[in-house]
Amino acid sequence: MKGIRVLELAQFTFVPAAGGILADWGADVIKIEHPVRGDTQRGFINMGGMKLDPARNTMIEHPNRGKRSVGVDISTPQGMQIIYEIAKTADVFLTNYLPAQRRKFKFDVEHIRAINPRIIYARGSAYGDKGPERDVGGFDGTAFWSRSGIGYSLSPEELDGPLMQAIPAFGDSIGGMNIAGGISAALFHRERTGEAIEVDVSLLSTAWWAAGNSVDYSLEYGKAMRSRLPTSGGNSGNPFSGNYRTSDGGTINLCILTPGPHIRNTFTLLGIPEAAEDPRFCEVRALMQNWKEASELIAAAFRKHSFAYWRQHLKKLTGQWAPVQSLLDLTTDEQALANDMIFEVEATDGGLPLRLVRGPVQFNHVPVTTTRAPQASEHTEAVLMELGLEWERIEQLKSAGAIA
After folding, report:
1. What is the pLDDT of residues 315-359, one digit of tens each?
2. What is the DSSP string of 374-386?
């Protein structure tokens, strides 16, 4: 993306995450922030009961790494003029403001295209840019988790109501990646045809794509899938697929979807090789018919040893499995680290570097190298001088409160 300029007029995580990904890929992303308040998310001091340090705010760093911040008051005519001047130089305009706000402040697609007909105009929204709720705002907790059906599907029906979303900006980060992909396709289309197009991604559509296999099933059979309460045992019809508890309370997930070729290897590694000779389990049809009995044998085998034991011992398993880990556990996972899934940026407080998660795409095995998220309005003067504004005009704009 080197040589591509993105003008981002957005807050929170969903749409800014797209800008963060594009910045990772080399784009020059100019983030517009209010000259006094900055991005609203900068004011967060806790999230889901977890304390946030304003000087080391990872909720700002995650979606905003690698960008430059320009402080502009878009409610002023002088401020909007600055937006237009940056838009003239940009390849992409990226926003999550609601339609009424875009019209009010005159940065809807018509006004931006009047300034730059070749610009890709990308919108992120809660529920889509069409339909009766086009003007309704939302967050991933409402649109991605609750309304989409994901929260319902992941909540066992035995519970007294649906689970709350436990991962902040869960749908936002997925949706941001979708926007970045859409922008990439739009830029490719413009390169091939000369046509600048619009890109729309909603949190609702992001959720339905993420859950697409289950949604398709529901459309076909008129039934919604649900999570089950935790058990130590196999799934119905396949004892080689399920969660099994270890002697010290850990959990191993077996996910051998085609158990036939792995029957002997699996039972042998579990310390019950005789089960592979048992006519109830020795071939796949019998194994699936007698899955409950096999599940009980496997559960008993897992209870004999610790989580750490099984993590090492099962490396010889020919089928698929995984240790059930926390997100914190993953930060020391040797496979995650070997694939550069964490990188560091300097911290504004001068303390230890901040460790951040890279995007899911890697090019030529090269780790991400980028800068920290900007402080609010950090690059205002530098960017405006690049545009050719004289210092006298910059001072006038500052005095008028149009810029930081």
Report:
1. 999 999 999 999 999 999 999 999 999 999 999 999 999 999 999
2. PPTTTTHHHHHHH
- Residues 6 or more apart whose CB falls under 8 angstroms from that of 66 comprise 20, 23, 24, 29, 370, 371, 373
CA distances to 23, 28, 95, 252, 347 from 5, rounded to whole Å, are: 9, 5, 14, 46, 25
At 180-219, the pLDDT tens digits run 999 999 999 999 999 999 999 999 999 999 999 999 999 9
pTM exceeds cut of 0.85? yes
Tokens of 301: 């085998």
**Residue (of 160, 157, 137) closest to 147 by Cα position:** 137
CA dist 147 and 127 (Å) reads 10
Q: How far apart are the first and last CA of the chain?
A: 28
3-class SS of residue 294 = helix
DSSP helix, strand, coil percent of the chain (3-state; round to 5): 40, 15, 40
What DSSP string describes 197-244?
-EEEEEHHHHHHHHTHHHHHHHHHHS----PPPP-SEEETTEEEEEEE
How far apart CA 155 and CA 66 sit, in angstroms, is 37
Neighbouring-strand partners of residue 242: 234, 254
Locus of tokens 């040797």: 334
User: Which neighbouring-strand residues pair with 347?
Assistant: none
